[in-house]
Design brief:
This protein has 67 residues and is mainly alpha-helical. The protein has one domain. The chain has three helices and no strands. The longest helix is centred in the N-terminal third of the chain and has 8 residues. The chain is elongated and about 50 Å long. This is NADP-dependent oxidoreductase domain-containing protein. InterPro entries: Aldo/ket_reductase_CS, NAD(P)_OxRdtase_dom_sf. One of its GO terms (molecular function) is oxidoreductase activity. It comes from Arachis hypogaea (Peanut).
Length: 67
Amino acid sequence: MRWIYEAAASAIVKSFKKKRMRENLDIFEWELSQEESDKISKIPQSRLYKAEFYVSENGVYKSLEEF
């Protein structure tokens, strides 16, 4: 959560447990080191689905043009 905050990105979190919600908000009193940030940045990210994900000859969209 802290890395997302430092990257000025958004996260969608889902928790109904008060303890976990507090943990999710407990990111403002500390910072990641440059080494930690660099390590996390190297993790492959998948932030959005591309249109190709929805295209299939058996699906609703048969081509990118239809999508």
